[in-house]
Amino acid sequence: MKIYFLLMSLMVSLSSFAQSINAGVEEIINREMKIRRIPGLQLAVVQNGKIVSNKSYGLSNVQDHIPVNNTTVFPLNSNTKIFTGVAVMQLVEQGKMNLNAPISTYLNDLPAEWQKITVDQLLTHISGLPDILQLFDPVTGNVGPLKTEHVIWEKLKTIPLDSKTGEQFSYNQTNYYVLGKIIDKLTHQSFVNFFEEKQFKAAHLKNTLFGDSRDVIPHYAPSYSYRSFFDGKKVNEDRLTNNYYEFPDFSRTSGGLNSTAEDIGNWLIALQKGKIFRNSSTLDLMWSPGTFNNGTPTNWVRGWGIAKLRKSHKAIGMSGGNRSAVLVYPDDNLSVIVLTNLGGSSPEDFIEEIAGCYIPGIIKADPLTNLRKNLQKIGYGNAIDFVKKEKKANPDFNPQEVELNNWAYRMMTTNHKKEALEIFKLNVYLFPDSWNVYDSYGEVLLKTGNKNKGIEMYKKSIELNPDNENGKKILDQIKNN
């Protein structure tokens, strides 16, 4: 009888724990969908090699009131790059590609200054290549009826490098377009077929495919965003609009995939269970940073743009289109996938809070999640005071300049200007020797009407970095006006 009661007690305890997790996740999702005005959302959670949660919320198609379900297909945007990173590492594992090899090893007729760029520098966005997007329509991504891939490629090769190769991080779509060309050449097939054969089939993905607004995609969730418009009297920023976008076929290695949260969950399971790579060392190598010319590690690991290589609860992932996010905790056997149909929803802001429902230590491990969760309670105006106290209590609490800056800019795009201003202010407090934080703070002060303080911040930025040409330009415009 004792064993029976012990088993019953354990089952009740596990059931209560599961209910607590579900309640916590539901609270986060409902809160964030309301705050960010997200029409529809999909969530999948992978734990210990199994999908333990696969849920859908809200509307897939607002105009026809069609709800999201588990087979609703969402655009992945730049989350496509993690699939491209895997494709590259498959070829590395097969001995067909070398991360340290110059791309001239694989492609002919490259400009002289491109020839020594390595595969690894493309993967980690330190190539310095010019961005191919400048040759596309800035609104739709269309290349126009007279522009073929050949025309785009030849024009791209005439544009000077944006920066010296290996010297600085510069995120752009050219890097993954070039990787796509190399994949085509080495596999003797299109990258589309290579992805389908070596990843989609290997992981038994049912709803993952390339495409954009031009394509007929079953169970597809249209993409939306909130945009300002003039109603004849004032500017209104609350209008939900349809997004139209194109990813030219030849450039889809950078952002052309569509999928479901469940499919991505199954892909991650296959990736970590050895069904996509032959060796676990390949996965470890992919989830490691490259190096700049001076030997410091890159912002990205190979193909994955979120690399939180902290002491505990390390996280690797990616975000796409400011609307979808994937995060893997390799040491915790946990992954979280959030897909939405709203550009600007920024699920990367709250995805670690969801993970924290399953492993509570994650909240403290991630400074931004810890900061955000507490500031929601005590107010963003208390950001500096909170950071001072937290730093004394928790030595590992070290918010990073770039993360804070990016978070604040995301809040600006969702019209949370007051909150964003406090985070920019916090960044100046934490990094007083960084010219960039003063530049960003100055920009937002001007946008929120604090001209004198904005000028002061720009002057400080230029004092720290006399080469800040953008700052000089802004101050000249203010002076002339």
Explain what this protein looks like in three dimensions.
By secondary structure, this protein is α+β, with helices and mostly antiparallel strands. The chain has two domains: 249 residues, Beta-lactamase; 115 residues, Serine Threonine Protein Phosphatase 5, Tetratricopeptide repeat (Alpha Horseshoe). It is built from 17 helices and 14 strands. The strands form four sheets. The chain has a seven-stranded antiparallel beta sheet, sandwiched between helices. The protein has a three-stranded antiparallel beta sheet with strand order 4-8-5. Strand 6 and strand 7 form a beta hairpin. The mean pLDDT is 92.
List the helices and strands and how they pair.
Blueprint: H1 2-36, E1 40-47, E2 50-61, E3 66-67, E4 74-75, H2 80-93, H3 119-123, H4 149-156, H5 174-187, H6 191-200, E5 209-210, E6 224-230, E7 235-242, E8 257-259, H7 261-272, H8 280-286, E9 289-291, E10 297-301, E11 306-308, E12 315-320, E13 324-329, E14 334-340, H9 351-358, H10 361-365, H11 367-378, H12 383-393, H13 401-413, H14 417-430, H15 435-447, H16 451-464, H17 469-480
Antiparallel strand pairs: 1-2, 1-14, 2-3, 4-8, 5-8, 6-7, 9-10, 11-12, 12-13, 13-14
Q: Radius of gyration over alpha carbons?
A: 23 Å
CATH architecture type of the largest domain: 3-Layer(aba) Sandwich
The amount of helix comes to 40-55%
Number of strands: 14
CATH topology of the largest domain: Beta-lactamase
Characterize the main sheet.
7 strands, antiparallel
CATH homologous superfamily title of the largest domain: DD-peptidase/beta-lactamase superfamily
Spatial arrangement of strands, main beta sheet: 3-2-1-14-13-12-11
The CATH class of the largest domain is identified as Alpha Beta
